[in-house]
Amino acid sequence: MTAGLGELVLSLGMAVAAGLVGCFAVMRRMTLASDAISHVALPGIGIALLLGVQPLLGGIVMLLLGTLLIWAVETKTRIPTESVIGVVFSAALAVGALFTQGESLVEALFGKPGALGVAEMAFGVAGSIGVAIFIVSQRHRLVIALVSRDLARTSGIDVSRLSLLYLLTFSVTVALGLRYLGVLLMGSLIIIPAAAAKHLAANLNSMLAIAVTIAIFSTLSGTSLAHALHRETGPFIIAIAAGVFFVSLLKRGG
Amino acid sequence: MSNALDVRHLTISFGGVALVDDLSFTVAEGDSLAIIGPTGSGKTVLFRALIGALPYRGEIRWAAGAKVGYIPQKLDIERDLPITGNDFLLAKARVGRASRDEIRRALDLVNLTEDTTRKPVGTLSGGQFQRLLLAFALLGEPSVLLFDEPTAGIDEPGEERLYDRIDRLKQERHLTLLLISHELSLVYRYATQVLCLGRGRSYIGPPADVLTPQKLEELYGSPMKYHVHE
């Protein structure tokens, strides 16, 4: 019962964080980037497994480093972010696959529920709460910055600092999903609910609410379906979210 | 009267080419400075340097405590972004600690209805969007307004109304105004100083001194027609 409760709390936290963070990822047009960022966790997981430390820790460290790299390229250089992401993050996936093998590679790529350690539980709870607080409290700044960086500047917003904090929040969100969705699928739980919400919402707050609702719905229904059929949870969660997205397309046309 | 803005030896370059070269001028508090010049003379670039969005050499000094409201010429906004005019204004109000009352007053001033502000910003017409940007700039009680092409995307009767509105606002709130414009006749009527940015040399002065047919021809490279309102 306790294990089940822990799992429920963690997956709800992951879904809420993914829904909220995803809205700004979609509106900032960093859909592809966000998918690629999550791949960078793989070599971290591989190295952690080799060293015999907690895989999540390795994933988080690599995600933070990857985030800093993207931020530095975005704000300090004129190299197109897209090319850097294309090269560095695909390479990360390749290198990560060299370090991680067999069963653990599949687990890292697609996620696997299992016994939760105290540290993982604590990170999951603190991480989701932190992400939710950041997005909800900073949504006004994020909106102005995504409409126009110049207007953000004249409104007294430190645009580059805000951008760094958002990317860090993004990478924490990816880390929250490593357990249940893995490196390959977590990016999708961030993007898909938000992309559907963008079609359905009439304003900012409703977009945030709809994205969170779709993320929670997909996570809960995907998890129970996977349990019932004795299959991995990740693919079900994402397949359901994608289904909701296609239904939202119908609404937009009508 | 003290200066709202002091610019000295300002140079702004892109890839080794100076778009603004060794420019110096001052703007007194309460002045209306119109910036004119041919396309590519660096007007918008100058504004963006003034708000700190571009690197530059030289000195830009705003008066202590100056609060700048910036109205860009145009923004590329996705049509189906679910951000309404209300979301946008509320965001500025929250960041700048302005009240909802202030939002209502700003909307009144720019003549936007609540119906319009409930629509996504990407679906507004050019004129509506520009008035929304003006309302955005007015929140938080700015002391200076930087207005890039106030009448771009607005029909002619709308142009004069907008200038009238800006002028009234300026009197009421003792604003300092910097505006980029192509409407020389309106510049003549409303500006107290005119800064002419040319590729060769730049000069500043009252409209009557600066907006002479001869000087304009020098600046634009061809005769300019404009009508002086009495």
CATH superfamily of chain A: ABC transporter involved in vitamin B12 uptake, BtuC
The number of E-state strands of chain A comes to: 0
Instruction: Report low-confidence residues of chain B grouped into runs of 5 or more.
Output: none
Please, how many helices of chain A?
A: 12
Largest sheet of chain B: 6 strands, mixed
User: Order of strands across the biggest sheet of chain B?
Assistant: 5-6-7-3-8-9
What sequence of helices (H) and strands (E) makes up the elements of chain B? EEEHEEHHHHEHEHEEHH
Principal-axes geometry of chain A comes out as globular
Number of strands of chain B: 9
**Approximately how much beta-strand content do the residues of chain A carry?**
under 5%
- Proper CATH architecture of chain A: Orthogonal Bundle
The number of distinct structural domains of chain A comes to 1
Rg of chain A (C-alpha, Å): 18 Å
Largest sheet of chain A: none
Q: What is the share of helical residues of chain A?
A: over 70%
Largest interface: A-B, 26 and 32 residues
Rounded mean pLDDT score of chain A: 88
Provide a count of the helices of chain B: 9
- Tell me which oligomeric state these chains represent: heterodimer
The third-level CATH topology of chain A is ABC transporter involved in vitamin B12 uptake, BtuC
> Strand pairing plus helix content of chain A: what structural class?
mainly alpha
Question: What's this, in brief?
Answer:
The complex is a heterodimer of chains A (254) and B (230). With 254 residues, chain A is mainly alpha-helical.
Could you please describe the fold and organization of this structure?
The complex is a heterodimer of chains A (254) and B (230). With 254 residues, chain A is mostly helical. Chain A is 85% helix and 0% strand. Chain B has a 6-stranded mixed sheet, with helices on both faces. In chain B, strands 2-1-4 form a 3-stranded antiparallel sheet, covered by helices on one side. The mean pLDDT of chain B is 86. Chain B starts with a strand and ends in a 10-residue tail after the last helix. Chain B is of the alpha/beta class and 230 residues long. In chain B, strand 1 and strand 2 form a beta hairpin. At the A-B interface, helix 7, helix 8, helix 10 and helix 11 of A face strand 5, helix 2 and helix 5 of B.
